[in-house]
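Students often ask why we bother encoding 3D structure as a string. The short answer is that it lets us treat folding as translation between two languages. Here is a chain of 93 residues written in the first language.
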Amino acid sequence: MENTSCSNLDNGNMLIEVIVKIGLQRIDIQERVTVEMLLDSSAIKLVISSEFTRKWRFKRKKIERPIYIRNINSFFNKKRSIKYMIEVNIYYQ
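And here it is in the second language, the structure alphabet:
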């Protein structure tokens, strides 16, 4: 199985997204999970959904100040913010 996949626009233009398979290792019990991740070259932070962290029982730590997210139109998303962090080891083949 390949570790990356790409999607192209219908009109033959180049790449619009790159999906990468990575492994996440929980620090507290050394358990690993393999996931598909969207590679975003303009991202300044690594973000994972709170639903995912609850499902896989990652140990979450509350951060001092929430990080507010900007929508695609550059306005802050008033309903959502990042309030927790997790520590993981990331593996890529």
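Translate back mentally: The chain is about 5% helix and 55% strand. Keep this in mind for the problem set.
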